[in-house]
Specification:
Length: about 260
């Protein structure tokens, strides 16, 4: 882990309840995890609950959304806009999670628009990218991550990574219990940083690059030892407070 403040982000997907959020706010209340940003991205209907819990406790949890519309407002039934998220005091938005790409058909260009819309409203986008098993077997990993990052650079310029975050999430590792090895993850994180550095070295060195894919309380410590891993995007283990806490503590110990 480099000198950048680690971010441990929990993506609850279509899971969780108000009472689970209360438990998290209680467990993460006034705890001594300094120098680590801890984020929960619950389903959007619970964002306000988390904000209220934070106001009523000393919970350190930051608040994020799992996706957002690329549209500002209008006739887009079911969508949620960045300004709505902002009004709820959301700070972070995950864009381009592999499930959004695979199940909801989000293209690199659409994801780049979501990234842009998020940034323009002063929220922090977390851009997810990662290859399928088939891509990896065909040596396409670097092509896939370059494609997703270049879509953002082409639309918004390299400067947009000054205030954004990248999450490398190999699709074959998500929800499978089969994490990338620390070496496999580091190789791709290093590639991503170098790719950005071709445009602007200072921005490249300042971008937090999270690893996601079956991170748990047992494998987190080794992942966080890698130079270019600046935290984690956690799915399953972010729904269990003591596991998520343990991952955050490993991030703290790695500093
Ligand atoms: C994810 O959904 O982003 C993820 C990494 O899930 P899991 O940790 O369960 O593999």
């Amino acid at each position: 882990m480099s000198q950048l403040t680690p971010l441990i982000a929990g993506n609850w997907k279509l899971n969780g309840t108000k009472s689970l959020l209360s438990e998290f706010a209680h467990v993460f209340n006034s705890i001594n995890i300094s120098n680590v940003d801890v984020l929960i991205c619950p389903p959007s209907v619970y964002i306000d609950t988390l904000v209220q819990l934070n106001e009523n406790t000393d919970s350190i949890l930051k608040v994020g959304a799992q996706t957002v519309s690329e549209q500002i407002s209008g006739a887009f039934t079911g969508e949620i806009s960045v300004s709505m998220l902002k009004e709820l005091q959301t700070e972070f938005v995950i864009v381009g999670h592999s499930e959004r790409r695979a199940i909801f058909g989000e293209t690199p260009e659409l994801v780049a628009k979501k990234y842009q819309t998020t940034l323009m409203n002063q929220l922090t986008p977390i851009l997810c990218t990662g290859e399928t098993e088939n891509d990896r077997n065909n040596n396409l990993t670097f092509d896939i991550v370059s494609r997703d990052i270049d879509a953002v650079i082409n639309l918004t310029g390299i400067e947009s990574f000054k205030d954004g975050i990248i999450a490398y999430e190999p699709v074959w590792a998500i929800g499978t219990g089969k994490s990338a090895t620390p070496q496999q993850a580091q190789e791709v994180h290093h590639f991503i940083r170098n790719h950005l550095a071709k445009h602007n070295d200072e921005i490249a060195q300042g971008v937090r690059i999270l690893y996601g894919g079956s991170v748990n309380e047992k494998n987190a410590a080794e992942l966080f030892k890698q130079d270019d891993i600046n935290g984690a995007l956690v799915g399953g283990a972010s729904l269990v407070s003591d596991k998520f806490m343990s991952i955050c503590q490993h991030a703290q110990s790695s500093l």
